[in-house]
């Protein structure tokens, strides 16, 4: 493997290229949605370590990261272990009482704590939360066909803002509760978009297992380097964006319309894709901009 010592000119050029972006985003909040598919894309320990390095570097150069995570593949794996098949309706997991219990165990007890632990290898910099903490995420039942699945009705960013102001990275599991205190499973992409708007983030970044948004769903060569909100809404309307990409696209639109300057979708299974997207001219994913 090549090193900076072997290629000092290339290393210097990368640092020079990154400098204006570091200056531009310093003191800004960047919400990073770490998808369960990105985490499941390879060796979990290596994936977490690489992701943690990226988040710690963002913080070291003055950026304020907030992490929102999913855990779909991990929930499916846990359900499989107990002999339960995952069922979906309109791309959302049908969540009965037992599935909700498993989702809480996996999201809060496994995925969230794993991300926090990986970050805290580098110092006491991260705290795990779920949407029920400090009434961060209030939700309402979405559809009786889906069971204990919620839609976000309110985001109270107070706890997130306090942690960020103290130099702490909030790591948020997307379990919320309704006004009666019933916990609900909420799509993590949707939550990321709502939180990014609520904390007035500079950027919202989705780390998933695809290299970006395709203009033609089954054609990898049609990945878009940049797209407007209107273009994305047209892709959803036409069916060109479908399946699990729909909530990501909708969350990007929600965030950008809510004041977030840029949203990004990129392949989180590629090591350090987050840094390449934020700090280089070419980037590696799809950047969503206002019209």
What does this structure look like?
With 291 residues, the protein is an alpha/beta fold. The protein has one domain: 3-Layer(aba) Sandwich (Carbamate kinase). It is 42% helix and 22% strand. It contains ten helices and 14 strands. It has helices at 8-25, 36-39, 44-60, 72-81, 97-120, 158-165, 188-198, 229-238, 245-257, 273-279, and strands at residues 29-34, 64-69, 88-89, 92-93, 126-130, 137-141, 149-155, 169-173, 175-177, 183-186, 203-208, 226-228, 262-267, 286-289. The strands form three sheets. It has an eight-stranded mixed sheet with strand order 5-8-2-1-11-13-14-12, with helices on both faces. The longest helix has 24 residues, at 97-120. The model has no long low-confidence stretch (mean pLDDT 90).
Mean pLDDT: 90
Secondary structure tally, helices: 10
CATH topology: Carbamate kinase
Instruction: Please give the CATH architecture.
Output: 3-Layer(aba) Sandwich
How would you sum up the global shape? globular
CATH class designation:
Alpha Beta
Fraction of residues in helix:
40-55%
Strand content: 15-25%
Number of domains: 1
Strand order of the largest sheet: 5-8-2-1-11-13-14-12
**Strand segment tally:** 14
SSE order, one letter for each helix or strand: HEHHEHEEHEEEHEEEHEEHHEHE
Task: Spell out the blueprint of helices and strands.
Blueprint: H1 8-25, E1 29-34, H2 36-39, H3 44-60, E2 64-69, H4 72-81, E3 88-89, E4 92-93, H5 97-120, E5 126-130, E6 137-141, E7 149-155, H6 158-165, E8 169-173, E9 175-177, E10 183-186, H7 188-198, E11 203-208, E12 226-228, H8 229-238, H9 245-257, E13 262-267, H10 273-279, E14 286-289
Parallel strand pairs: 1-2, 1-11, 2-8, 5-8, 7-10, 11-13, 12-14
Antiparallel strand pairs: 3-4, 6-7, 9-10, 13-14
Helix pairs in contact: 3-5, 4-5, 7-9, 8-9
